[in-house]
Amino acid sequence: MNEQLQPLKKPVRNGKAGRSGTQDDIVYAHIFEAILEQRLAPGTKLSEEALGEIFGVSRTIIRRALSRLAHESVVLLRPNRGAVVASPTVEEARQVFFSRRMVERAITELAVQHATAEQLNELRQMVREERDSFSRGDRGAGIRLSGEFHLKLAEAAGNAPLVSFQRSLVSQTSLIIAQYESGNRSHCSYDEHMQLIDAIEARDAAQAVSLMMHHMDHIDSKLNLDEESASDDLHAVFSHLLQTKKRAPAKG
């Protein structure tokens, strides 16, 4: 079944998952990306059978990928009832955003001290890709790139435990936004991201932290208890993989 599993078109920038990853790395990366792009609705049942069919791998591989996602608190593993995408309560959402603020402050302060010119250039390129995605109406890709920006910034801070913690917080935040975001869903994160990079490059810690807190305020201000935009249909979420498999020539 190995040949059926399609790698990500764009490997996850900061993780092991990608074209050279193991099967569970790639399954993990696809599901993580679907969460970052808000294509998977909170509360979605993650059927091992359906995911095994979609990715063309064994249920053992699916379980390993789901276990990694559960470790990051974006999937819940329920005994005898299977896995579901986490569905944060209002109180849990508040706790995640509080933790995210603390971590973003520390990351920003460290990035001012440690970010290299090369890392800042990579961040600027990500912001340009994020802006282009929103401009052409690809909201999912824009949201994913916005999340990846914060993961890349954590790398620039040079603190490995913060990178790991941030990865979990970013994916949980994406679920919270999918569950609770309101309004016209306009995004100006790329402008705020670019201003933040400029402050980090100027080694202005006070300004950089102020900009990051304003950015978090902006995200927080758009949340309420209403709409959900993601899907609970696994075949719809990963339809691009199924289409690729159908187009692939049969191997005899």
Automatic annotation (TrEMBL):
InterPro entries: GntR_C, TF_FadR/GntR_C, Tscrpt_reg_HTH_GntR, WH-like_DNA-bd_sf, WH_DNA-bd_sf. Residues 21-88 form the HTH gntR-type domain. It holds the Pfam family GntR. One of its GO terms (molecular function) is DNA binding. Keywords: DNA-binding, Transcription, Transcription regulation. The keyword Protease does not apply. CDD domains: WHTH_GntR (cd07377). It comes from the Bacteria. Residues 1-21 are annotated as: Disordered. This is HTH-type transcriptional repressor RspR. The lineage of its organism: Bacteria, Pseudomonadati, Pseudomonadota, Gammaproteobacteria, Pseudomonadales. The gene is rspR.
